[in-house]
């Protein structure tokens, strides 16, 4: 593990409890969950075997497990996984994802192990986009799908301590940003190229304008601004 990744993992581990608390207590939490549920439902087969990469506190993994999918979530931030397991323990056994330490860029699973690979706000913080997407494609069974939800978070870089907090700016300092090129992405077309280069077909980008409209109307987390999110899908033939 690189020093940069260790620093980022420490930041996200420290934030795990507050991050999870906000996802379930913010005023639009139930509406946001419904939007994600409606977005993902038609994209995945019933009772799919799903790998959720960069799972964090398990937001997407838990949502999918609650919908009847068999979910494994991986992350390199141990503190985030601890929080994800705490949440899972409050659910019935059949709705509990499996959480493991694992690298989203190079998940350590056999080829063709999953029906779907999912991520939520992970693409922007990957050090090697093409390597990661190729790894996800490798893990899919024929007909399997990659579903990545993200946004153009910081096309101008991360510069304002007042907006994002000193701890965030320290973790994602100028050196880190230069090593995480997706921080500066302002168009999902670059992700589309990575999906196609990995051999995925039927690659589509759909903007989640219902989520964006909700954020514009109701506001987002302190220090953040509404950002228009999108979902990218690609299928392994």
From TrEMBL:
Q: Which Pfam families does this chain map to?
A: Methyltransf_11
- Record has Methyltransferase as a keyword: yes
* Any one Gene Ontology BP term: methylation
Q: Which residues belong to any copy of the Methyltransferase type domain?
A: 51-147
| Name of the protein in question | Methyltransferase family protein
Which SUPFAM superfamilies does its entry note?
S-adenosyl-L-methionine-dependent methyltransferases (SSF53335)
Q: Which UniProt keywords apply?
A: Methyltransferase, Transferase
PANTHER family on file: 2-METHOXY-6-POLYPRENYL-1,4-BENZOQUINOL METHYLASE, MITOCHONDRIAL, METHYLTRANSFERASE
> What InterPro entries does the annotation carry?
Methyltransf_11, SAM-dependent_MTases_sf
**A single GO molecular function term of this UniProt record:** S-adenosylmethionine-dependent methyltransferase activity
Q: Which domain of life is it from?
A: Bacteria
């Amino acid at each position: 593990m690189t020093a940069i990744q260790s620093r980022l993992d420490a930041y996200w581990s420290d934030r795990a409890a507050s991050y999870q608390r906000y996802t379930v207590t913010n005023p639009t939490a139930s509406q946001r969950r419904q939007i994600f549920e409606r977005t993902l439902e038609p994209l995945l087969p019933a009772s799919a075997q799903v790998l959720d990469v960069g799972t964090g506190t398990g937001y997407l993994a838990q949502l999918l497990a609650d919908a009847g999918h068999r979910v494994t979530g991986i992350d390199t931030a141990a503190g985030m996984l601890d929080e994800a397991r705490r949440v899972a323990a409050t659910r019935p056994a059949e709705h509990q994802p499996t959480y493991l330490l694992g690298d989203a860029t190079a998940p350590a699973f056999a080829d063709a192990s999953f029906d779907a690979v999912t991520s939520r706000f992970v693409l922007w913080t990957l050090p090697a986009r093409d390597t990661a997407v190729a790894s996800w494609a490798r893990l899919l069974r024929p007909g399997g799908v990659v579903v990545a939800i993200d946004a153009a978070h910081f096309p101008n870089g991360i510069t304002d301590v007042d907006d994002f907090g000193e701890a965030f700016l320290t973790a994602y300092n100028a050196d880190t940003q230069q090593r995480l090129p997706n921080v500066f992405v302002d168009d999902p077309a670059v992700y589309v190229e990575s999906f196609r280069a990995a051999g995925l077909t039927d690659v589509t980008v759909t903007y989640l304008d219902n989520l964006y409209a909700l954020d514009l109307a109701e506001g987002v987390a302190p220090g953040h601004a509404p950002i228009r999110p999108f979902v990218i899908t690609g299928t392994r033939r």
